[in-house]
Hints:
Helix content is 22%, strand content 14%. It is an alpha+beta fold. It has a domain at 28-81: Alpha-Beta Plaits. The chain has a two-stranded antiparallel sheet with strand order 1-4. A hairpin with a 6-residue loop joins strand 2 and strand 3 (52-54). The site of iron/sulfur cluster has 14 residues, from helix 1.
Amino acid sequence: MTMTTTSLAILPERLRANAWGRYYVTAECDACGLCAAYAPANFASTFDRSYYAILHQPEGPQEEKAVRTAMMVCPCRCIHDDGDGDAA
Ligand code: SF4
């Protein structure tokens, strides 16, 4: 008898505070604020300051680059791109 296993991808929790769209922050965020330093037009702290989230999806190449940089420097690796090119 052959046993098969099914691995289910465990998706990180997408914070509800994120603006709808391609980029989002998950609950692993430690609220360090680095993302907002790199992309101040796109990230902001949540009301209770326990997380940062995408306040505005990037518009134009400069904001897109800033968000991509924030993804690279985020110490918690909790900024994600769902791969959907529709950032609106
Ligand atoms: S850089 Fe990452 S861990 Fe820091 S506040 Fe932004 S999303 Fe959260």
